[in-house]
């Protein structure tokens, strides 16, 4: 069973997931969302990089917990460019000094819940590293509103190449891929609320329903109806 709540860290989400529950196709898939996560599983800490395709966790037993950072914010907190972790799950000990990771892991394991321990770790890291570049929020907002990449760069007062470089470091991929992922998320939210697929395609910014179908299969690996379990 999956549950989440808003974090005390601005824009982040704290979640936990226990094996079991829905057996619908796609129910266990982790879908691209432009975010990175700090994870806990079986007493160890991991980082999930930004995904460009659906990730299937496999049959690992036991609960998971995580903090999902808002798009573009995790590299500032973690000290690692997002593109270095694209489509990967890595142990935190591979990114930070082993002694520090052992100390932080012990703190998370001693917390009332792993999710709470992760949130405290994220808050402390954010306080020490400072706020992410505010321009990144503007990039996400513009692209999520359907603004073309070239127009977004112009409105932000930066060149297309600079936008691409900054996007790679912050989001793990270029602005065109980020726009595609955000459009996919908009469509998924509409479809989950019962909006017909043709209307979902139009409202989310796709050329037509066939375009929506291609993008969903490309990002999720399954058709939209199968993803929703309908």
UniProtKB/TrEMBL annotation:
InterPro entries found in the cross-reference section: AraC_XylS_family_regulators, DUF6597, HTH_AraC
Keyword Phosphoprotein appears in the UniProt entry: no
Listed transmembrane segments: none
Residues covered by the HTH araC/xylS-type domain: 133-230
GO molecular function: DNA-binding transcription factor activity; sequence-specific DNA binding
A Pfam cross-reference name: HTH_18
Coiled-coil ranges per UniProt: none
Keywords, in A-Z order: DNA-binding, Transcription, Transcription regulation
Range of residues in the leader sequence: none
Record keyword DNA-binding present: yes
Protein name in the entry: AraC family transcriptional regulator
């Amino acid at each position: 069973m999956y549950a989440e709540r808003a974090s005390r860290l601005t824009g982040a989400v704290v979640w936990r997931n226990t094996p079991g529950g829905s057996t619908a196709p796609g129910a266990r898939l982790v879908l691209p969302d432009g975010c990175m996560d700090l994870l806990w599983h079986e007493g160890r800490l991991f980082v999930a990089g930004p995904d460009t395709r659906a990730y299937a966790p496999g049959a690992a037993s036991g609960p998971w917990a995580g903090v999902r950072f808002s798009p573009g914010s995790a590299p500032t907190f973690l000290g690692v460019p997002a593109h270095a972790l694209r489509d990967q799950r890595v142990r935190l000990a591979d990114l930070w000094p082993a002694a520090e990771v052992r100390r932080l892991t012990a703190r998370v394991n001693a917390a009332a819940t792993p999710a709470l321990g992760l949130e405290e770790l994220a808050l402390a890291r954010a306080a020490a590293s400072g706020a992410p570049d505010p321009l990144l929020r503007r990039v996400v907002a513009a692209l999520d509103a359907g603004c073309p990449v070239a127009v977004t760069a112009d409105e932000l007062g930066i060149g297309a190449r600079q936008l691409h470089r900054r996007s790679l470091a912050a989001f793990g991929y270029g602005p065109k891929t980020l726009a595609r992922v955000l459009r996919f998320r908009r469509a998924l939210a509409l479809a989950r609320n019962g909006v017909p697929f043709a209307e979902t395609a139009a409202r989310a910014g796709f050329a037509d329903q066939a375009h929506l179908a291609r993008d969903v299969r490309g990002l999720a690996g399954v058709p939209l109806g199968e993803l929703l379990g309908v």
